[in-house]
């Protein structure tokens, strides 16, 4: 690409460059270009395509070609229609996890108190707070993640209804002082230690948010036995699962006395368990 390439030409070249790295090369190139131009992708597509490509775009493309996630380069990620700040210290919110928010709003829109265990960016908790009048608590074992969640509560304007606590659920008594909630959300780490992950994920996202022992079940085995004590009488808990984990996690949940209902993601794979 030459210095005189237009925005459109530079995007086309970058999409080709990124084809080996990303299944969404064209989209990635457009998002990086919008970032380099300091504009929104939609505005760029309408107006800027014949302008000269900005300085700095090439450097962003090279970062992406080296497998850095687009969300890390941009510093934010869209989730359930809102933009969330993201850093390398937090899991990048996934479209698949929107199923949990949908189920929560469907089943427990009237929840007064919401708990999000392992909140990360706060995407699950803050989406529910933004859609309702609920108050909520997000916990995480990572101070860096909690700082991001705080920032996101401010960005979404729900900071007066959100509290965040540093909490490590591998420690005895972790659930004792949290109180009771009408809705409990949780996207725990659930990836098998030996799983072959995309280099974007393995090299750039926090392993503490991903890996959960040889079967990916370690965190469910810790959380499920304590879950009932965190739930008010008519409460609902919604847990994200790996798409092959529904039999194993359902069995653990039934063993703890829960009724289990399954939710699927957009690709039609099992993605969440609703527990009552
Ligand atoms: N869905 C994520 C992935 O496949 C895993 C998220 C998690 O472990 N909670 O990368």
Automatic annotation (TrEMBL):
GO molecular function: peptide chain release factor N(5)-glutamine methyltransferase activity
Entry keyword annotation includes Flavoprotein: no
Annotated InterPro entries: DNA_methylase_N6_adenine_CS (IPR002052), HemK-like (IPR004556), Methyltranfer_dom (IPR025714), N5-glutamine_MTase (IPR050320), PrmC_N (IPR040758), RF_methyltr_PrmC (IPR019874), SAM-dependent_MTases_sf (IPR029063)
Binding positions (S-adenosyl-L-methionine): 118-122, 140, 169, 187
Keywords: Methyltransferase, S-adenosyl-L-methionine, Transferase
Catalytic reaction(s) noted: L-glutaminyl-[peptide chain release factor] + S-adenosyl-L-methionine = N(5)-methyl-L-glutaminyl-[peptide chain release factor] + S-adenosyl-L-homocysteine + H(+)
Domain Release factor glutamine methyltransferase N-terminal, residue spans: 9-75
Pfam family, one: Methyltransf_31
PANTHER family assigned: HEMK METHYLTRANSFERASE, MTRF1L RELEASE FACTOR GLUTAMINE METHYLTRANSFERASE
HAMAP family in UniProt: RF_methyltr_PrmC (MF_02126)
Name listed for the protein in its UniProt record: Release factor glutamine methyltransferase
Species classification: Bacteria, Pseudomonadati, Pseudomonadota, Alphaproteobacteria, Sphingomonadales
């Amino acid at each position: 690409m030459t210095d005189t390439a237009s925005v459109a030409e530079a995007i086309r070249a970058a999409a080709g460059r990124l084809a080996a790295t990303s299944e969404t090369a064209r989209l990635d190139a457009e998002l990086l270009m919008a970032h380099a131009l300091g504009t929104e992708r939609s505005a760029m597509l309408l107006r800027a395509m014949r302008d000269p490509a900005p300085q700095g775009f090439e450097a962003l493309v090279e970062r992406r070609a080296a497998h850095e996630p687009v969300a890390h380069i941009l510093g934010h990620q869209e989730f359930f229609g809102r933009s969330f700040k993201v850093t390398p210290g937090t899991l990048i919110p996934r479209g698949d996890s929107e199923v949990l928010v949908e189920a929560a709003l469907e089943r427990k829109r009237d929840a007064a108190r919401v708990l999000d265990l392992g909140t990360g960016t706060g995407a699950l908790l803050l989406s529910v707070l933004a859609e309702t009048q609920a108050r909520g608590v997000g916990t995480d074992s990572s101070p860096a993640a909690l700082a991001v969640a705080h920032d996101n509560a401010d960005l979404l304007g729900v900071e007066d209804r959100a509290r965040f606590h540093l909490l490590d659920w591998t420690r005895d008594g972790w659930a004792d002082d949290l109180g009771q909630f009408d809705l409990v959300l949780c996207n725990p780490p659930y990836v098998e230690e030996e799983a072959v992950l995309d280099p974007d994920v393995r090299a750039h996202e926090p392993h503490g948010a991903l890996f959960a022992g040889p079967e990916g079940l370690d965190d469910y085995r810790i959380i499920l036995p304590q879950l009932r004590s965190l739930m008010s009488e008519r409460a609902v808990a919604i847990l994200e699962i790996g798409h092959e984990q529904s039999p194993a996690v359902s069995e653990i949940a039934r063993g703890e006395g829960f009724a289990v209902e399954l939710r699927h993601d957009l690709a039609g794979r099992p993605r969440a368990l609703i527990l009552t």
